[in-house]
Amino acid sequence: MRREILIPPWVVIVVFAVSNIAFAESIIGTAKGKVYHNHPEKCSSAKRIQSDNVTRFESRADAERAGRRQCRSCAKIDKDAAAKSEADTRTPSQPPSGGASKAVIPQKPVRLATDSTATSQSGVRLPQLVHAKRIIDGGTIELDTGDKAGLLGIVVPNRGQPAARDACRFIKEQTHDRLLKLSLPAAPGDTMVRDALGRWRVSINPQGGRDLAGELVFQGYAWLNRGRFTSRSEEYSRLEEAAWSAGRGIWRQLDGDDGQRIVMTGRGATEYHDKKCAHVPHLTDPMQLAINEARARRLVPCDDYRAKGSERSSQN
User: Fold this and answer.
1) For the domain 9-74, what is the CATH code?
2) Architecture of domain 117-250
3) Model pTM greater than 0.85?
4) Mind listing the pLDDT tens digit for each residue in 160-184?
């Protein structure tokens, strides 16, 4: 005689719940952030969120109801996935929209540099594998080759500027006794490999670590260089947004009178200025605002403002 096995209702409920958890989309953000991440395992900004600072949402809709917007990096991942899915569904006889299929031209293999130098677009031989000999305020790294290097794509605070000491300390920690790989991720056609001070304009990856410039921006120890575009500018912009959302380093709100100091900006401007700055007459629709409000708008100090003496700028 065949026996019927009765499954208790609670078992069905548990299995259903577990299956839902397995397939649920993981939505996270920072406790005080303005964005949410739906690809925490792929998004570079999400990976940097400390475990004690993670806020979880049940769904995208739940995050958006809380006033969050999707992280730009996660949005790009979604867009790329959608494009790949569309491409995978095409048959060989279906060329992409916009015209006939184009012949695939085989590319020449790229030969990677195996020595300690690499050649830039202008033919200059860049030392590729080096050690740091000394760290100087403002993001200058003296190399064991005798050259000095500055980090491409970002602006590091000078002595007396906000977070200058933290930036210098962080660079020392990341480069101490580690082999450094230099590279030139400049914009296409940019052949300038040295700046006005004669420093190499490079990206630096410490052995076993991440891109040093990106880490400085993410920690709030540097600004995105808005005056010169590189192939990593969009990535640095996303990292800066994460530091700004969390109020780290140079984006921290100031206390008391320091936070209420009046600065100037203008319509469409990305910087703020001292009221007597020579840049002010050139602003469109000049306006006054407190420095804390300027930081809340993700404005950065102009070159002249950053060049002020330490007595005035140490609190900014």
Assistant:
1) 3.40.10
2) Beta Barrel (2.40)
3) no
4) 887 899 999 999 999 999 999 998 8
Please say if the pLDDT value at position 121 is more than 70: no
Which residues are CB-contacts of 86 (< 8 A; sequence separation ≥ 6)? none
| Cβ partners under 8 Å of residue 124, min gap 6 | 193
CA distances for 145 relative to 101, 127, 149, 211, 313, angstroms? 50, 8, 11, 21, 34
Alpha-carbon gap, residue 19 to 36, rounded angstroms: 24
Asked if 263 and 289 touch (Cβ cutoff 8 Å), the reply is yes
Q: Is the pLDDT of residue 241 over 70?
A: yes
Strand-strand pairing, 180-183 and 129-130: antiparallel
Band (pLDDT 50/70/90 cuts) for residue 252 is very high
Domain ranges in the chain are 9-74, 117-250, 253-313
First to last CA, the chain: 84
Q: pLDDT-derived band of residue 189, with 50, 70 and 90 as boundaries?
A: low
Question: Are both 9-74 and 117-250 of the same fold?
Answer: no
